[in-house]
Amino acid sequence: MKILFILLSCFLLPVLCLQRAEEGCLQCTIKRLVKRIRSYQTQKDTDFHPPNFWSKTKGIYESQVKYYFHGDAASSHLRDMFSIYDVNMFATSWINTVLIEAYKYGRTPKPDPAQLELSLEAIAKFADKNANYTNSLMNFWPQNYNETLKIWQCTPKNLVTFFQFADDIPLETIEKILEKMGLKKLEGLIKFYTLMRRGIIGVFHIPPDFDDTFVNLGLGALLTDMQTDFPKQQNVWHVNNRNISSVLNALKKYAYRPFSNDKAVNSIDPRSYFYLRYFLEDAKKYKRDVALAPTWVQNIDEARRLISKGVLMPFNINNIGCTVSANVIYGITSGILSGLLKPDILDDPEIEKIYRNTSRLITWQLQTDLTKRPDLALLYYPSVLEFYWFVARSSALLERYALAGKLPHVALEDTRVMFGKALRGHVTTRILSMATRVDSEVYYDDFMGNTDRTLFNETMNKAEDRLFSTSMATNALQRIWIVYNETSKRNNWIHETPSLVHDTVTKMVAYLQKNILGFRYKPWNAFYSGSVKGKSTFPFFYPGNRVESSKKDHYSLYGMEGVISEEEYLQMAKTPKFHNETTPMDFNGFNNNTSGFPFWNSPPYTYATALLALSQFENTEIVEERFQPRLR
Q1: pLDDT by residue (tens digit) across 123-177?
Q2: Cα separation, 265 vs 255, whole angstroms
Q3: Reported confidence tier of residue 631, pLDDT bands at 50, 70, 90
Q4: 405 and 426: one domain?
């Protein structure tokens, strides 16, 4: 025992002392974060060899598929246990974006060129291979060629291979053994496994999406804006994205148009319609046509045709996610302001309509707390704070260019005004109200592990997404209330910044600096998730007026076509539906039901967002009132 104590002391004391010493050194923490993030980047391709090695792609940053078991101690333990390495472009694109922004807006060392190029080459491989032309339509997962069906399929390779590999496991026998051992919760895991194994092949064969597509466009715009610092890296991106017009053409083709007679694009996922209906009814009242950026690069006709090929959107119908909308707006905005796109793209009536409508929808949702249904408005991305940050990035960019001169298109100016008013008004009040304030500390929790129970059935908060949520809140408030000065290369708080905002950000930075590299909290996040997270997100419980099915083609469709009156909608909501359920009108949180759901977690993404929060803060200066920027 004494020897063990000595060994532990030799290991832990230097680490604890180093951590304590660096609590007062922001730059030290920043440098350690840079090093830690780099350690998560895959340096070589590997194949799937269970149980020790997952398939990995060179240049991709680590993320895992996990499952949100929650509640008692056994469920919490299962949440820790279940983890499958995932290869996707979303996390890697964001990590690279954040590393560059932390360098531009903060005092983070310049990203390693080789590290950046490795990722850019990897990301380029996610472009759609089914299109018979060069394009920048991006997939969440890599595409693998199906020789039998003669088509490229986008699937989570490790997840699919894992379930295929375990096809011969005698699940019923395992269930009986677990039951005799009294491990009923583990029996539940086996049932979950059985369900996932049955559905995984059909569910996770998706088309390209506009979220990854415009995140990639935003990354290209950032590199274009900083091509003096990253000439080779900007060229790598440009070589791999020679046909950017493919993105804009697809946006026009697949936009959701509820007032159109085109049945391929005038219907939407019933879950999306639930929260969109007030916005759509308002547009109908004032005779405004609507075209909105959707999630999937596919329409209903194509889904019907490709179902036998295994390339189709979930539930065979498109949806509208506000996080996707925010990234579409940022991609177009940053593309124009960086020079990657020409301002006259907004002279195209259809692109301008989509840009204005999507910006107006985002503003509407900012002002109404996502219509009190974040589970539906942020269908694949559970974090509200992340959504606020995504929107604030566009707002900050527009304000920065507006201060330097006139914006190159009136649609940009109108969006600047709308976003700024909502973000500096209701959203700021909302973010400040969500904070937990204990003595001199300020931090944010979302939902992960917040209501777990111990072996003695006592409630506990494991705060598994605290570091991520606090980083997102810090970044959101900074992007809302600071402006980057191109001359001084420093950030400045704008003149109107409330003292509570400055105090909250300062305390969050201190909290992150103290905890981000420690052992107390996990660097977890739910940067992506399955769309179904219990009854409140099951599409067949929501009103729909378009039902199609074909046993021959194994095809079914349930959606909402056009726009109906609120009176008619509420009557449909009261009518019992699938399993005799009525429409869930309220959202009570992801911890208030027993249902779990798959989510995607990326520790380096958490570290990267914390890096940006700390670095921006260190590069923000307090100037005399007469020199503080005043927004128009």
Answers
A1: 999 999 999 999 999 999 999 999 999 999 998 989 888 777 656 556 665 565 5
A2: 7
A3: confident
A4: yes
Q: Which tens digit of pLDDT belongs to each residue from 184-207?
A: 555 555 555 555 555 555 567 899
SS3 assignment, position 107: coil
Q: Using one digit for the tens of pLDDT, what is the confidence trace for 312-332?
A: 999 999 999 999 999 999 999
Residue 405 inside a domain? The answer is yes
* pLDDT tens for each residue of 514-567: 999 999 999 999 999 999 998 899 999 999 999 999 887 778 999 999 999 999
User: CA-based angle 172:176:181, to the nearest 5?
Assistant: 145
> 231-240 vs 210-225: helix axis angle to the nearest 10?
150
Is-contact 320 271, C-beta < 8 A?
no
Distances (CA, A) of 552 to 129, 148, 205: 28, 20, 20
My answer on whether 245 and 390 are in the same domain is yes
**Domain CATH number, residue 535:** 1.50.10
Cα-trace Rg, the chain = 24
* Cα–Cα distance list, 47 to 164, 567, 609 (Å): 15, 56, 30
Query: Could you tell me which residues come within 8 angstroms of residue 143 by beta carbon, excluding any fewer than 6 positions away?
Result: 126, 128, 129, 130, 152, 153, 154
Q: What is the 3-state secondary structure (H, E, C) of 43-75?
A: CCCECCECCCECCECCCCECEEEEECCCCCHHH
Cβ distance 395 to 480 under 8 Å? yes
506 occurs within a structural domain? yes
